[in-house]
Amino acid sequence: MAVGIGIVGVGQVSDYHHFPGIDLDPRAKLVGVCDTNPDLLARKASDWGVEFLTHNPIELIQNPDVDAIIVATPNFTHLEICLEAAKNGKHVMCEKPLALSAEEVRQMYHAARDNDTIHMTAFTYRFAPSMLYMKHLLKKGDLGEPRHFRSQRFLDLPETSWGWRQYKKLAGAGDLFDMTIHRIDFAIDLLGPIKSVSGSVAQFSKRDKREDGESCEPSEVDDWSALIGEFDCGAVGVWEGTTVAKGYKLKGFGHEWAEINGSEGSAVYRMHDPNHLLFGKPGGDLEPIVVPDEFLKPKDSPRDPKNGEPGTVFRYDLVWEFVSAIVDKRKANPCFYDGLRAQIVADAVLESQQKRAWIDIPDEPL
Fold this sequence. Notes:
single chain; Rossmann fold; Dihydrodipicolinate Reductase, domain 2; nine-stranded mixed β-sheet; globular
């Protein structure tokens, strides 16, 4: 029997990778959709061939045909929806950031854990082939002892309104919570826990106009974020992200560079070319190497890695992992606990700026 999935929030993210992921997986079936925008909801329900549609997420969660939900709604709504899903015994994958603060994320994680439901954080880039291969090389020892982690995420986005994303009570923060939190997560996945951070955020664009030129309340959140960190393993890290880096369009993908320097070599992941890894040994130069076939997708994923835009299609494996965890009755990877660890670090960046101080990251019990 197929896993019945409901999508809460049918906007761009769901259209871009959640629905295609469901559509590819023969073990999954989209049985219902929910959105507060009636025109968008009707259009996507028609496009996706689903009959059950509602404006109320609780109605979708309580639908007996729904085994699991995917939450792709504004950040401030995640807590209530995910708590309701846990209460009703429904598995849930939620977009990042999981909530507005680590305390809210902690509530979500505990509720899902204590109700024995599968929970997953939609940290997309964990599934990029070159990221998977870089992790393999690191664990295998080909890079030697890890010393430095370096992440850059530069986007050249229009400086018009972000809508709900630019207000603290609805989004929590800007680039830090929207983009840099991904990079915090995969750094932890690669190198283990972060023990201390010092960070800062800044805003350069007021975003007080909509695309149509109409005025709106100016942005309250950052469009640049940066941090330096120390890992438990002894390595150090540097992260920087911005949405106002002119000239970094790169076909809409922007500039993504994630690097590990070890005692025996360096490796670099780039999102716009995820099927190649830059690799260099002592005394040599960074050179592109082809990611081996076994890392282009998870072994049993139904996706054909030769089809589609490489920078897009690896995202479909999010749903494959979510459904696999449900079918196999195992933990999903990454789960809400991973989302919580990343959120604790992101919150610490804001605290660091406020206090002008290094912030120690406490251990978080499972």
